[in-house]
Amino acid sequence: MVQSASTDVVRVNARATDVFDIFNFKHYEGPNRYLETGALIFDLALTKYQEPLTIEDYVAAVGDRYPQLRTEKYQSHAHLFARTVSEVGKLDMGLHLNRWSIEYYPEYARIAVQSLHGKTTRAVVYFVWDWFEAITQNREIIYDEQMRVLQDKFRQSVYGGPTVYALLRTADRKRIPTFYLWDEGLMQYGYGRKQVRGVATTFDADSHLDSDFTTRKDDCKAFLSTLGFPVPNGDLVTSLKEALAVAADIGYPVAVKPVAGHKGIGVTADVQNSEELKSAYDRAVDAIPEDQPIRIIVEKSISGSDFRLLCVNGRFVAATERRPASVVGDGESTIAELIEYENRKPERLDTPTSAMSKIQCDEAMELYLEEQGLSLDSVLEKDRTVYLRKVANLSAGGFSIDATRNVHHDNIILAQDIAQHFRLTCLGIDVITRSLAESWKSGNFGIIEINAAPGIFMHLNPAVGESVDVPSHILETFFESGTHARIPIITFNRVSVGELQETIDHILLQHPDWTIGAVCQDGVFVNRSQKVLNKLYNNNVQNLLRNPKLDLLIAEYNEDVLEKEGMFYYGSNMVVLNDPTETEMMLVRDVFEDSTIVVKERDNISIRRRGLIEDYTLGAGEPFTRVYLKEIGTIL
To answer: Is the pLDDT of residue 5 over 70?
Structure first.
């Protein structure tokens, strides 16, 4: 065990001043013999260069950041190291990475920590290593700066977007299988014919025509008007001259926004005169993608607050008020200093899971301050609140307030009536009004736009108010439970092509309309049709599980594949083991309560099903296939 005594292990990655050495990294995307989930595996040893501090010394230092670690007991330095990596691996963002394990060997310990993004987890391990060495040498480590680097690394991964991660975390809690389709750039939820694919809150069940329609703000506005819903008076323009003419016709104040846009970029509200309109028009043009024509909406600006109504599967589920970034004066500090103070607040960590982003300073902010007779150098009197933008852009430092419980039933009906016209899983409806507690029919209510791919984190983690579990609403649209996201899976540790085909035929006799995928070391099949065998074994498994017509999967996982690649999926409905090795026995670990397990050791048979165990010996010449084929009916 790696405890408090140095060993004679040859240094691999350690520097001459290091107490610890880390080596033999390996990342598994899915279950492996160390953990039942994706994991990073590495070895930790003590060097002989100098003695480590006591475990208590490291606990005292690490506990300053993670007080919960002070209440636990540790068998060794490796134990504490693993526990620290697990805690740091949550990246101060609440990531659902809680599992870890240790195996002790005479000269080192093998540590496994749950991992979603391998590169980030590996960087976490190196950071903790540096942290422990700094503790040993009584050096300071710039924790906050290093944590930001780790957070940025995760944010840049395919899992790092706040909406994607929120859905992944909820899927994990509900035991809904997920994996990323690298070739398609999509996330898949569920297996085979049960699957749903998507990007953030857009899914393959959505109509791409409806989704495209929502991006045409001018056409959507006309459509909503035909339904009798309140939309601001205005028009589409393609030049500044036309914009000035429209504004003069409908009267100031006006709002200006690009037809092709998102996240409030290029939007300016409450434009009071022609000079402000020129600046607003330029900002809208700058926000238009290069491949898009200049098309700008100029419409009457409605007084009130900015709200988002969210519908999932045609039903209203959440509402949020969005307010622009603001600062409160203290009588001494400039606005620039107040912004700096505000950005230091913990709730403005600017991570995918923080309630608020840092306040962004730009030309639009300075112009709005100028309209108020202020600048970044102005000192505000005590308790005076100054808004820094006209638009409640959350990514620029605005904040969200949950308003779900206060929505008037007329407004709920309005949102649902709009959503019913679109084949979209999620629809965000942006409105301006004094209060959602008042009916839209009472006036001063305007629908600003609708969004086919709305972000959900403002509802899940508002700056003020209760959280609304939008990810659960979304996933429950497709799956009642994790079980409903799965197809039956039969896993062998050893099976020949002939036995595979015999098993396929046996199932097709009972379910002739099924599509069955099967893979072993020597072939891939869909029913009896042989497919191309990929060199990477788990790619074959993924290709079958991404088949949207697949009703059942049969897969072989022997020791070599389990050690080299691990498993692609978690959970088998039936496991068939023929003289299994110790590593192959992990297949029995990853089963469900109602799974069937058939194990053959020489001629001895053990069958476990629903808490019952049956043992017997094979008769002379009795084939093993006869045993497990008989049991297949228990899972279908």
So the answer is: no
pLDDT score at 394: 80
Q: 261-265, 392-396, 524-528: which has the highest mean pLDDT?
A: 524-528
Sequence-distant (6+) residues with CB within 8 A of 409 are: none
Task: Dump the DSSP string for 65-92.
Answer: T-GGGGGS--SSHHHHHHHHHHHHTTTT
Q: How far apart are CA 100 and CA 124, in angstroms?
A: 14
Average pLDDT value over all residues in the chain = 92
* Residues near 270 by beta carbon (within 8 Å), at least 6 away in sequence: 253, 255, 301, 390
**pLDDT, position 3:** 42
Do the Cβ atoms of 460 and 166 come closer than 8 Å? yes
CB 490 within 8 A of CB 554: yes
Residue 373: CB atoms within 10 Å = 7
Whether the link from the prior residue into 580 is cis, omega within 30° of 0, is no
- Bridging pattern class, strands 296-300 and 572-578: unpaired
**322: closest CA among 443, 169, 414, 455?**
455
At residue 352 the predicted structure's pLDDT band, cuts being 50, 70 and 90, is: low
Owner of token pair 């846009």: 261
Q: Which residues lie closer than 8 Å to 268 by C-beta, 6 or more apart? A: 255, 256, 257, 276, 279, 280, 283, 284, 364, 390, 391
Residue 562 in this model has a pLDDT that exceeds 80: yes
Assess whether pLDDT exceeds 90 at residue 397.
no
Q: In what order do the strands lie in the sheet with 529-531?
A: 529-531, 523-526, 516-520, 552-556, 489-492, 572-578, 591-601, 604-609, 612-617
Q: Which run of H or of E encompasses 323? A: strand 315-323
What pLDDT score was predicted for residue 17? 86
249 contact partners, CB below 8 Å, separation of at least 6: none
Q: Which helix (H) or strand (E) holds 612?
A: strand 612-617
| SS3 state at 44 | strand
Distance between CA atoms of residues 591 and 571, nearest Å: 5
**In sequence order, what are the beta bridge partners of 69?**
none
Structure tokens at 226: 């035909």
Nearest-angstrom CA–CA distance, 308 and 430? 5
Name the token pair of 208: 């791409």
In whole angstroms, give the CA distance from residue 424 to residue 207. Answer: 6
CA of 584: how far to CAs of 70, 391, 571, in Å?
Answer: 37, 58, 14
Q: What SS3 class is residue 116? A: coil
Cα–Cα dist 197/191, whole Å = 10
| Length in residues, the chain | 636
Under DSSP, the state recorded for 138 is: T
Q: 415 Cβ partners below 8 Å, 6+ apart?
A: 309, 311, 316, 429
- Strands 516-520, 552-556: pairing is parallel
Contact 197, 425 (CB under 8 A): no
